[in-house]
Amino acid sequence: MSARILDGKATAAAIKQELSERVAALKAAGHTTGLGTILVGNDPGSAWYVGGKHKDCAEVGIESIRVDLPEETTQDELLAKVKELNENPDCTGYIVQLPLPKHIDQDVILEAMDPAKDADGLHPMNLGRLVANVNRPMTSPLPCTPLGCVDLLARHDIDLNGKHVLVVGRGVTIGRPVGLLLTRRNINATVTLAHTGTTNLDELLAQADVVIAAAGSAHMIKTAKPGAILLDVGVSRVDGKVTGDIDPALYESASWVSPNPGGVGPMTRAMLLNNVVEAAERNAAK
Ligand SMILES: Nc1nc2c(c(=O)[nH]1)N[C@@H](CN(C=O)c1ccc(C(=O)N[C@@H](CCC(=O)O)C(=O)O)cc1)CN2
């Protein structure tokens, strides 16, 4: 048996097509949609991701505002830029590219953002809303990679109701929020959150129907239940190449696989655009 591929690239392209129609409708009604990005420092990976976000905006008709700052930018200088975007009416939503240089406290920066403009869904108020709201449709932005995982599965008609999902990784962008999303009543999965301190990982992997690997440790997942659905969202660079958390040898016995690269990454980009368009639609409805 060989797994079917959850094709993030093709799915993201379809989502972008849908979003361009919504952006055009907003424009026709006199509303601009604009994404801002703040990049601090010279990390080539981060610069590539930010470049991709602006390319995506151009494709779907979203205006974009790019703020690139040097590595030695102080926390106060960065806070001033955050304030500028909070107050800029052309900016519907924005992101601060992570990770930030070590001398800057990420939590302080995320908290200073206007929650209504938080296109990444990482402001503590938006994460708190995800914690608090189990039943109703969400009306605040959700973190892009978790949303990308859920949407990728839904668009391949994979029902998670009653499934046991093992999340490996406890980071704020993926591991922690994805479990909250998956246990909402409309999805109804049962979630176990494992991490690098978990001592019985192979035992948990042997039981899981779905594995979402987001630990950022190259090929650390070496076993899975036959027929499992595997989503690889971990990113490491080995010899300069993007490498996921899941050993590709497992693809043979899985039912569905979202590889890395080519799986959830393009969905993360599409969900960012989705968050900006939803924010613009909320503004237009006011
Ligand atoms: N503010 C944020 N910072 C970071 C986030 C985030 O969601 N918000 N996530 C990651 C980086 N990221 C987006 O910012 C991101 C990562 C990967 C991809 C992607 O499309 N990956 C490709 C492979 C790319 C490659 O070859 O390097 C794929 O999976 O096919 C998009 C966005 C950390 N920072």
TrEMBL record:
It catalyses: (6R)-5,10-methylene-5,6,7,8-tetrahydrofolate + NADP(+) = (6R)-5,10-methenyltetrahydrofolate + NADPH; (6R)-5,10-methenyltetrahydrofolate + H2O = (6R)-10-formyltetrahydrofolate + H(+). Residues 143-283 form the Tetrahydrofolate dehydrogenase/cyclohydrolase NAD(P)-binding domain. Keywords: Amino-acid biosynthesis, Histidine biosynthesis, Hydrolase, Methionine biosynthesis, Multifunctional enzyme, NADP, One-carbon metabolism, Oxidoreductase, Purine biosynthesis. The keyword Amino-acid biosynthesis applies. The keyword Hydrolase applies. It comes from the Bacteria. Its EC number is 1.5.1.5, 3.5.4.9. NADP(+) binds at residues 169-171, 235. Residues 6-120 form the Tetrahydrofolate dehydrogenase/cyclohydrolase catalytic domain. Pathway: One-carbon metabolism; tetrahydrofolate interconversion. Belongs to the tetrahydrofolate dehydrogenase/cyclohydrolase family. Homodimer. Catalyzes the oxidation of 5,10-methylenetetrahydrofolate to 5,10-methenyltetrahydrofolate and then the hydrolysis of 5,10-methenyltetrahydrofolate to 10-formyltetrahydrofolate. NCBIfam families: PRK14193.1. PANTHER family: C-1-TETRAHYDROFOLATE SYNTHASE, CYTOPLASMIC, C-1-TETRAHYDROFOLATE SYNTHASE, CYTOPLASMIC-RELATED. This is Bifunctional protein FolD. The lineage of its organism: Bacteria, Bacillati, Actinomycetota, Actinomycetes, Micrococcales.
